[in-house]
Amino acid sequence: MAVVSTPATLERAVPVMDNAEVLRIRNDFPVLNQLVNGQPLVYLDSGATSQNPVSVIEAEQEFYEQRNAAVHRGAHHLAVEATEVFEDARQTIADFIGADYAETIWTSNATEGLNLLSYSLSNAGLWAAQGRGDQGLRDLALNPGDEIVVTEMEHHANLIPWQELAFRTGATLRYIPIDDQGSLRMDQAAAIIGPRTKVLAFTHASNVLGIINPVRELTALGHAAGALVVLDACQSAPHLPLDVKDLGIDFAVFSGHKMLAPTGIGVLYGRQELLDILPPFLTGGSMITTVTMERAEYLPAPQRFEAGTQRISQAVAMAAAANYLTETGLDRIHRWEAELGQRMVAGLEGIPGIRVLGPAAGKERIGLAAFDVEGVHAHDVGQFLDSQGIAVRVGHHCAQPLHRRLGLTATTRASAYLYNTTDDVDRFLEAVAGVRAYFRA
Fold it and tell me: What's the helix, strand, coil split of the chain in %, to 5?
């Protein structure tokens, strides 16, 4: 008799993370084994920047010790080895997100990836106006009357580049609003996304609300309108399994420093057929086929968008970070962080004078919680927590329009990762419970 796997049996087949395993994982992160203000460090700011395991640190160090050379340029031994590990890293990241090798573009971070894409789209209009490219390129060009749609919860990195693209092309920027709980008004999304929509850009998971947005539903709306769909995966790629092909999106961005990798490295994913017709953004060496004194011809992706000396050691280290996450199991990491997120929200909701943004306890969210303490500024909350060795983020988290919509100027945000324990969350909650009394609010 055949055995049919159900979601429940599949979940049981994958070992669930617990505090004992997390404490072993924690030993891989040297920076966490220190005292801050005389207290063991509780690092709850991974939504801004994650910490690095020894394997990632050693991968970058080993590159500089053994293989440091320019890629794609030299025929000597070190240059060949450097090129091999650089391109092997690209394949690792492509596999990590379910993409093809040539669809994976190295950037400095997600912000650069979004700017690269927005400028390439405006260059499409310039090329089309000069008779360069084919009908596919002309179809990508934005013109007055076209619309770009974002959401009210976007990080500035997924808002300002589209504002500027609208300014350069004469297109109109529109946004999908949120309700009072922070969820997207999907009823309005269906009316806003329409025949004039050329670009639909939205975050997979909000860096403030913790909400996981309905990617498939939004993508279906965008594609039905003939729009390009751009996903900000900064808060999802490090924390849950991501398959860009399965989601059906056209482009995606994420940053290495949020997924255990160094700063200065990120990724732009794009469908191959789109990347190969988009004009480049940065131009120079290593991304051309032929150059005359009058004009240049460009390579296909990925080199088409990678001018100049590349971020070689960072790419190698980012691949090591992806391997670390894969070996640990992103589905397991996601479940553990969801548990920590629920513990944070339930605890915060039980503290008088605390307003938690985003879904209430019991509803799906990633492992972060942003909150307002009545009568105490977020910066004071952050300093109070820091005095007890607890690192959190304070401010508007590069999401001023979202905070303005919710009637706030700043919040405090705690964000967990695979190296946080339930004890970390409990220490955080105990400290937050003392904030209002300390400041006599």
Answer: 45, 15, 40
